[in-house]
Amino acid sequence: MLNTRNYSAVDPRAFKGHSDFWFMWSEHEERIVRCCYKWLYNDVDKVEDAVAQSCEKAYKAYTNHNDNIENAFAWLCRIAHNTCMDVHRVNTKQQELVNQVTDLPQEFYFADSYSRTLESDLIQTNIYNRLIQQIAHLPADLRQVVEYKFMHDLAYPEIAKKMQLSQENVRKRVQLARQKLSKIREEYHA
């Protein structure tokens, strides 16, 4: 702590009860941990989380209130018990959701949790740019069909009507254009 005549870099009130709390916590921590093991059925990960949360909650409560604690173990134990019950509630909700999803998988839609990387974005951009170039180099009849089908999202009957072709001819032109353009994708995935 930096002290000058009229200036203090750290307010001493910020540490009010700091050492008192840690003495009290260290005195009862082992018993609190044993209680948490009992309440959380010996699940080590959950116990560690619950003890850490209990310690944090107790510290905040201890430093924020001037109340005199008559039975420190009972007070800490109540905080730990409430924290453990919160952990149970969260786990129960999660398990209910998992059970619901596994019982009725057709009722739920899960978005891909895949996050794109810079490399995949760069590859996609390169593929897109190459695709635009290749579309520009397609013969006019194939390029027109590709524009109608993929850029304007028209159905085959609409394209056939606009181009005055049969639907079969339009499908064949789309197929030929796809074959020529699919080589670009193969270059990047090879």
TrEMBL record:
Signal peptide residues on this chain, from the entry's feature table: none
Keywords: DNA-binding, Sigma factor, Transcription, Transcription regulation
GO biological process: DNA-templated transcription initiation
Parts of the chain that traverse the membrane: none
GO molecular function, one term: DNA binding
Domain RNA polymerase sigma factor 70 region 4 type positions: 129-181
Cited PANTHER family: RNA POLYMERASE ECF-TYPE SIGMA FACTO, RNA POLYMERASE SIGMA FACTOR HI_1459-RELATED
NCBIfam families on file: sigma70-ECF
Family: Belongs to the sigma-70 factor family. ECF subfamily.
Protein's name according to its UniProt entry: RNA polymerase sigma factor
Taxonomic lineage from the root: Bacteria, Pseudomonadati, Pseudomonadota, Gammaproteobacteria, Alteromonadales
